[in-house]
Amino acid sequence: EEVFALAKEAGALAACVSGAGPSILAIVEARNEVFWQKAEIALAQAKVDGAPAGRFAMMRLKPDNMGARLI
Q1: Residue of 7, 11, 70 whose CA lies nearest to 43
Q2: For labelling alongside 11, which of 41, 42, 48, 71 has CA 20 to 30 A away?
Q3: Would the pTM of this model clear 0.90, i.e. be above it?
């Protein structure tokens, strides 16, 4: 819940757990550069039981409006 609150505070329109793994998805307007700055700072300061939380990777992805398809 803390991660979702941080995402919303940084300007995300929505945030959720993505899939069954450790991925978090944040929906952000493409022009919102402030979100990326705030998210990088928050991740650099993240701690688990008082120790640095580890490495994180942030990726900017565009929505796929075509949906599922056979290839």
Answers
A1: 7
A2: 48
A3: no
pLDDT tens for the chain, 71 residues: list them: 788 888 899 999 999 988 776 788 899 998 999 999 998 888 888 777 777 777 778 888 888 888 888 98
Tokens of 70: 């056979």
Long-range CB contacts for residues 60-66, cutoff 8 Å, separation at least 24: 60/36
DSSP letters of 24-51? EEEE--TT-HHHHHHHHHHHHH-EETTE
| DSSP element (H, E) containing 3 | helix 2-10
DSSP state of 70: -
CB 32 within 8 A of CB 38: no
